[in-house]
Amino acid sequence: MKINDVILQTVTKIVVFIILTMAVYLFVSGHNSPGGGFIGGLVLASALVLLFLAFDTETIMKRIPLDFKMVAAVGAFIAVATGAASLFLDIPFLSHAYSYFNLPVFGKTGLATVTIFELGVALGVVGVVVTIILSISEDV
Amino acid sequence: MLSVNLAILIPFLAAILVPFLYAKVSRKHIGWFVLIVPIVLFVSLARYIPSVAGGETYLSTIAWIPSYGIHFTTYLDGLSIIFGLLITGIGSLVIIYSIYYLSAEESLGHFYIYLLLFMGAMLGVVFSDNLMVFYAFWELTSISSFLLIAFWYHRKRSRYGAKKALLTTVTGGIAMLTSFIMIYVMTGTMSIREIISTIDYGHALFIPAMLLLLLGAFTKSAQFPFHIWLPDAMEAPTPISAYLHSATMVKAGIYLVARFTPIFGSHESWFWLVSSVGIITLFWGSFNAVRQTDLKALLAYSTISQLGLIMTLFGIGSAALSMGAGEETVIYTQATFAALFHLVNHSTFKGALFMVIGIVNHGAGTRDIRRLGGLMSLMPISFTIALIGSFSMAGLPPFNGFLSKEMFFQAVVSVSQSGIFSLHVSKVLFPVVAWVGSVFTFIYCMIIVFKTFLGPYQPEKLDHEAHEAPAGMLISPIILAVLVVGIFFFPNVLGDYLLRPAMASILPSIELEGMIEPISAWHGFNPALWMTLGVIAVGTLMYLSIRRWKGIYSLLPENWTLDNLYNNSLIQMEKISNRITSFYMTGYLRSYSIYIFLFFIAAVGGTLLFTGAYAFDFAGDAPISVYEIVLVLVMVAAALAIPLAKSRVNAILLNGALGYSMALFFVVFRAPDLALTQLVVETVSTALFLLCFYFLPKWKKEETPRRTKRTNLVISIAVGIIFVLVALSVRGGKLFDTISGYFENAYELAGGKNIVNAILGDFRAFDTMLEVIVLFIGGLSVYTLIKLKSTKEEQNLEDQ
């Protein structure tokens, strides 16, 4: 039996963008207000989960041809590599630095190396969540 | 000069580059690129020799985990530079040899990656000053040698040998780790140099730490009774055997003994353990080598025996520390000197011999001495190298083995004449065992040369016509053979520049000036020379009459070997663990939950009860508002409704309701970060639950007996009570420092206004990093569990 889920699909198409924007916002604002890599990643993953629920996995995987195991691996690698990077500067493992820069559009912006670390966390979370959900749903 | 820390890391960095090279460069030439690494390292280490010989040492530190005193500290002194030079020097020769030995069809990329990993790990072992870093590199040598031994992993014997080596050496490694922790408890430092000055001989942990440390050394260096892994490790390709088993890995145990002699050496039991285990190994290894028919197995036993010899010398040498400055100290310092000397000599002649055996195998197609013979005229260069290597090992002039062998005899004779440690009781034991072991050494050395290269040539027993190896394959063994002869004629160059500086590291408290005479080939008619002459005479007679007395080997019962013990204990272990596992792995989720909960009740409840940790204090609590009461009521209602739900979807949704109420709690308590996380996690996990449960059979009312129900009820209530108790007492307990202190300077130090993230990403980033990795591993495990289920047929294939 084919389930008619027009409403779910239509709503999803719009909502996913809102969620994704939210995810990016959460990720970027993490340093000073609620948010951060873990939550940003989770929200992003939940947008993907919603897509998988509304459409079937094959369609989505065709549009987003990412190997999510690789995404998770890249995330874990980035998280470790940011730590290792400080070793080359002869400072303790996982030391972070931050500073303020004047960027063309954003004005005075604080940039911190933590963001790279958090990017690793976010990618790790997205990769793992989607990998788990995909493998369970495909296992019949 | 190249920093030593960097030198250790170079092989690892090169190992990362190999796959890229593998894609670009033709397979044949990859070895030449890899060869650059050990040569560069050798040259840069060699540049330290003059200053180290002048008494200089080099220490450099990179902070790693400062809070635990774990630093990547390297220490370059006389002892470590010898090993460093052997690792890189023999490493270079082995790589040259392997370029010609391995055919281009082999997976050369893997081979060189493992080899570089191993080289880096070995360098790490010998240069580390920090116990934990030392241990990490130590285990990395076990793992990389496992990969190397199992290089031809499609062979069952290779896998068996690799597993045996790994099990033995890692067991020893863990014992060593325990010992390191004890040492840390005793001294409060991880630095080996600092331990030397702060160790307390009277401490209760001193003896246990020493025993565990020696266990690590003996397993790694294949000392009796842990030697059984070494012959099986011969399944590795010959360049690997030459590298791992002549020059480097098996010597790590020797290095460990030498390095820790200043710490433990002045104790009587150290002397006894090291020297007696060494001498037993010397005898047992040489005795068993004679019966081998496979040349490589013969060499494996000979390595065991030679390592025993070096071990004995280090054991005898350690007595110098407890004797202090005195007349007798000379004996022991000379023993240590002989140990170092023989260590270098052994690397040269054994490396050459392994390579020659590889050439014989290559040229004649077999290593079985029953099929070989008469190769002298066909393989003249190999014959010459084998002759030099074997005669050196047998302790004959004019080869370097003669010099160190004489010093060994001298040491065992003089130690038995001295009155230390009530040694006069067994006055003759050391010299006699050493002498008998040397006779057998002489016999197997003759077997290597004469059975392989002399006698009748039997082409009908060989797969193909025997031929000399290509010139490239001969380069490395020729260099080693030249060294064997060269060291005999100029031993004092080696002695002055490498061995003497190393003495200062092993025996730091001894004034070494004038203790050690220059090495000389002629040392008068002393006991050592008479012993050598006796070895030659008796050895020749026994070699000629080998058929007459070979029967003694069959006197030992077939089943009573250590190998059998190892195999049987593996089988028994598997059986027992199978039985235990099938006892609790019932296949019912219900039983698993019960085990987990019962354990939880016992462990956590018991701890709470016995430590009296349940202290409640409601005095400072904030007033409870209406929202909170409402939320609690909602949660209670949802929780109670779950067991009564009629369908799975309802149960999942009710569970979700619990989670969302929790998120609302966070909102009420103004913890937006937690609320956000909780909301998203709840959403995703509800979706996951729905997915999983979709595949389960229809929900039906279970007919469980009343008694089971009652037990379940009791367990669940107990779990609930303990959780509440824990939650209440957590606020009272102050076991750990609170992390909320970080918020005070989060903005100044990390530049973030969000203190939660500042803590997660900056102050406690190590935790977060590990969490990401755990998450990643968890995701991968789910994936492998579900996706890579092998079918029955595939399983059958794997078993072969």
UniProtKB/TrEMBL annotation, chain A:
Any one GO cellular component localisation term in the record: plasma membrane
Localisation: Cell membrane
Domain Na+/H+ antiporter MnhB subunit-related protein, chain residue ranges per copy: 7-131
Highest taxon above the source species: Bacteria
Pfam family, one: MnhB
Keyword line: Cell membrane, Membrane, Transmembrane, Transmembrane helix
Keyword set includes Cytoplasm: no
Keyword Transmembrane helix recorded: yes
Membrane topology note: Multi-pass membrane protein
Transmembrane segments: 7-28, 34-55, 67-89, 109-136
Family membership noted in the UniProt record: Belongs to the CPA3 antiporters (TC 2.A.63) subunit B family.
Protein known as: Na(+)/H(+) antiporter subunit B
Species per Swiss-Prot/TrEMBL record: Paenibacillus woosongensis
Gene name tied to this protein: mrpB
From TrEMBL, chain B:
GO biological process: proton transmembrane transport; sodium ion transport
Major localisation: membrane
Domain NADH:quinone oxidoreductase/Mrp antiporter transmembrane: 128-426
Domain of life where this protein originates: Bacteria
InterPro entries: CPA3_Na-H_Antiporter_A (IPR050616), MrpA/MnhA1/PhaAB (IPR005663), MrpA_C/MbhD (IPR025383), MrpA_C/MbhE (IPR046806), ND/Mrp_TM (IPR001750), Proton_antipo_N (IPR001516)
Domain MrpA C-terminal/MbhE, first and last residues per copy: 710-787
Annotated transmembrane regions: 6-23, 30-49, 81-102, 109-127, 133-153, 165-186, 201-219, 240-258, 270-290, 297-317, 337-360, 372-394, 428-450, 471-490, 528-546, 592-616, 622-642, 649-669, 675-696, 712-730, 768-786
Pfam (any one): MbhD
Annotated compartments: Cell membrane; Membrane
GO cellular component: plasma membrane
Domain named MrpA C-terminal/MbhD: residues: 633-698
Gene Ontology molecular function: antiporter activity
Signal peptide: none
Membrane protein topology class: Multi-pass membrane protein
Span of domain NADH-Ubiquinone oxidoreductase (complex I) chain 5 N-terminal: 65-112
Keywords annotated in UniProt: Antiport, Cell membrane, Hydrogen ion transport, Ion transport, Membrane, Sodium, Sodium transport, Transmembrane, Transmembrane helix, Transport
Family statement drawn from the similarity comment of this UniProt entry: Belongs to the CPA3 antiporters (TC 2.A.63) subunit A family.
NCBIfam families the record matches: 2a6301s01, PRK12645.1
The protein's name in its UniProt record: Na+/H+ antiporter subunit A
UniProt organism field: Paenibacillus woosongensis
Lineage, opening ranks: Bacteria, Bacillati, Bacillota, Bacilli, Bacillales
